Amino acid sequence: MGAVLLSLGTLVSTFVGGLFALRFRDQLHFILSFTAGVLLGVVCFDLLPEIFGLAREHGESADAAMIALVAGFLLFHSLEKFVLVHHAHEADYAEHRHPRVGMLSALALSGHSFMDGVGIGLAFQVSPSVGIVVGVAVIAHDFCDGLNTVGLMLMNHNSSRRAFGMLLLDAAAPVLGAASTLAFRLPPGALALYLGFFAGFLLYIAASDILPEAHSRNLPSITGVLIALTCLGAAFIFWVVRLAG
After folding, report:
1. CA-closest candidate to residue 11, choices 162, 164, 113
2. Which of 7, 55, 124, 197 could form a disulfide with 131 if both were Cys (CB 3.0 to 4.6 A apart)?
């Protein structure tokens, strides 16, 4: 039950991050630059070390998880390209962006948020102290999950109302994930596969969706600022993970 209570903090954190993105939507390219760094940081400083840590702890190879990472990347790439080709004739399709692409991206993030909650619950299965450390780390970066969800919806031409609806789903997902762990215990090998799969999803979203959109205005005067914000986002997650560890 402690995992569920702590996961309520992720709900608030995600919701506040999404409202921030809605309020400052005219500055979305700055927000997207930062959140692209956040996603890269989550993959490189949080998910990948966790995968290799699980492999070492249980004397197993991380190869399967790395295959899952590539599968996640390519699956999302395939889904996105299918949507783009299928809807290329529609009048509201512009600049390779479509509302359904935003929905797919936001749903992927909600899936990641659900598993964030599962991670909190599984950490509490190890011990309350481990659960608290993991919970604090998730709360810290879920603020940026809210930013990412709203940013992806808006940059793919979704309305503010739809973006808010997906924000509600993303905010509730960690609580549901934490609650689900009251009913099961996940084997370490399966957890590593999940981490690899969603690392691939997040890597694709950051590199193929968010970063290109952040730089779409192609203004030399702000390029350095955008790059600096991406570095800052990655550094922020590095700091959060090290602090929580």
Report:
1. 113
2. 124
Chain-centroid distance, C-alpha 67: 19
Instruction: Give every CB contact of residue 10 below 8 A, 6+ residues apart in sequence.
Output: 113, 116, 117, 120, 135, 138, 139, 142, 171, 174, 175
Angle at 198 between CA 4 and CA 43, to 5 degrees: 95
Instruction: Give the CA distances from residue 35 to residues 5, 39, 208, in Å, rounded to whole numbers and listed in that order.
Output: 27, 6, 13
Q: For residues 142 and 174, is the Cβ–Cβ distance under 8 A?
A: yes
pLDDT for 52-91, tens place per residue? 888 888 788 889 999 999 998 998 788 767 655 554 444 4
User: What are the strands, taking DSSP E only, across the chain?
Assistant: none
Whole-model pTM over 0.85: no
Which run of H or of E encompasses 48?
helix 48-57
Per-residue pLDDT of 185-226, as tens digits, reads 777 677 788 788 878 887 887 888 778 878 877 778 888 999
Q: Tokens 């370490």 belong to which residue?
A: 188
Q: CB neighbours of 31 closer than 8 A, spacing ≥ 6?
A: 20, 21, 24, 147, 151
Identify the pLDDT of residue 130.
Answer: 63
- The torsion angle over the Cα atoms of residues 67, 70, 71 and 73, rounded to 10 degrees, is 160
> For residues 37 and 229, is the Cβ–Cβ distance under 8 A?
yes
